[in-house]
Structure formats: structure tokens, C-alpha cells
Automatic annotation (TrEMBL):
PANTHER family: HYDROXYACYLGLUTATHIONE HYDROLASE GLOC. It comes from the Bacteria. This is Glyoxylase, beta-lactamase superfamily II. CDD domains: metallo-hydrolase-like_MBL-fold. Residues 12-202 form the Metallo-beta-lactamase domain. GO terms for molecular function: hydrolase activity; metal ion binding. It comes from Thermomonospora echinospora.
């Protein structure tokens, strides 16, 4: 599996392109601020053909470029319904007051084809399988995406702003809940194998085992029922 990522824009939100191999179809995860140029560079370098955009949640730093990327390539966007309204009203997720403009009057629109995600759904895209785990707490519609382990590589989880190396997502913005994010971590992350690779929405990659050992926010958590068995 090919995973190529880069930090997009001033927020440095990780945008990932995932494909079975170079020269094949790919999925774009979280195209943030001014991500089009970076996407084009990765597509050209690895000879990829994007077939979908999937969003871990609706905050602006992760969905800024969803509409232009989908429109330019005529591909659908996938997002959880609880965050779908942020595609067109991103200020709602940032707690802007009445009359406050977003980045000088920035206005976003929905792509022509938006498809809604649900907990436990399995997406068959670009020759890959992604299991969706609903993981509210950072936003009501936050999700993670997991690809299955093979003989060559361990399971990979794209965590968005649920879990970072050494930290977790903030919960002080509208729709955030510290109690919910801890419950999501216990249910979605902790039951996974130690070798599971974590590719977060910001910062460097890590593993579930490393976070289980050193992440202070996980120290007092115990695994819950576990994520949906999508494989």
C-alpha cells in the first residue's frame, strides 16, 4: 500500500493520498487549506488517479479544499452526517460570534456528490478497504478510517484529530466533549493491536502500542467493546 502525506496550509493538517501502489487509483483523506498543489504534486509523482475524498471530520483545516478537489476531478466526498453542515458553514465549528467573518469572508460550498458515512461502514474505494469508526468528541461527526493488516504491513488507522502522537484532539470548540473523546479512544483505539500504525491529522505518525505506553490521556482508560469489525 502506498501512503503519501503532506501538511497542508498554515494549519499543517495532514492530507494523505492512499493507493494500492504507484500508478493506480487513490483516495484523498482530509484535503485542507490550499491542498490542491500538494495533491497535484503527489498525483504526478506517483501517477495516481483520485477516485474519492474522505474526511475524518468537518473542521476547516481538514475540509478547506474538499469542494475544489472534488470538482476538479469529478469525484465524490464522504463525511459523517453530523459534520456535513460544516462543509458550507465552517464557522459553526469554530465558535465565531455574530457578524464575525471567516478568513476575510471565505465561503465554502458542498461538492456535487456528497455521501454520508456511518459507524462500521466499509468503503471499497480504489482497490482498498476502509472501515469507518464513528469517534465523536473532537466534533460530533469525527470518524477514523482503518485499512486491514496484511502479511507485509500492519493495520493502518487514519485518526484525524482523535489521537495524536502524545496527545489527543481538543474538545473546547462547539460540539466537542472531553467525556465523548475519552469514550471514543477507549472504544475505537485501545482494542487495536499494538503494531497498528496511527496516521494522525497533525504531527508525526505513531502506533497504538506507543500511545498506550506513553500518552497521558490514555493512561487511565481501559478498552471498551472495541471498534466495529469491518474486516
Amino acid at each position: 500500500m502506498l501512503v503519501a502525506g503532506f501538511p497542508a496550509g498554515s494549519f499543517a493538517a495532514n492530507c494523505y493520498l492512499v493507493a494500492p501502489a504507484a500508478g493506480e487509483e487513490c483516495v484523498i483523506i482530509d484535503p485542507g487549506q490550499d491542498a490542491e498543489a500538494g495533491i497535484e504534486e503527489v498525483v504526478r509523482e506517483h501517477r495516481l488517479k483520485p477516485v474519492a475524498v474522505i474526511a475524518t471530520h468537518g473542521h476547516l483545516d481538514h475540509i478547506w479544499s474538499v469542494a475544489p478537489v472534488c470538482g476538479a476531478r469529478n469525484v465524490p466526498a464522504y463525511i459523517h452526517p453530523a459534520d456535513r453542515d460544516l462543509l458550507t458553514d465552517p464557522g459553526k465549528g469554530l465558535g465565531l460570534g455574530a457578524g464575525q467573518q471567516l478568513f476575510g469572508g471565505l465561503e465554502l460550498s458542498e461538492p456535487d456528490d456528497v455521501r454520508e458515512l456511518s459507524d462500521g461502514a466499509v468503503l471499497e474505494l480504489a482497490g482498498l478497504r476502509f472501515t469507518v469508526d464513528h469517534a465523536p468528541g473532537h466534533t460530533p461527526g469525527s470518524v477514523t478510517f482503518r485499512t486491514p493488516a496484511t502479511e507485509e504491513i500492519p493495520e493502518v488507522m487514519f485518526t484525524g484529530d482523535l489521537l495524536f502522537a502524545g496527545s489527543i484532539g481538543r474538545t473546547d470548540l462547539p460540539g466537542g466533549s472531553y467525556e465523548q473523546i475519552l469514550a471514543s479512544l477507549a472504544r475505537v483505539c485501545l482494542p487495536l493491536a499494538d503494531e497498528t500504525v496511527v496516521l494522525p491529522g497533525h504531527g508525526e505518525q505513531t502506533t497504538i502500542g506507543r500511545e498506550r505506553a506513553v500518552n497521558p490521556f490514555l493512561a487511565d482508560l481501559t478498552p471498551a467493546d472495541g471498534p466495529s469489525k469491518g474486516f
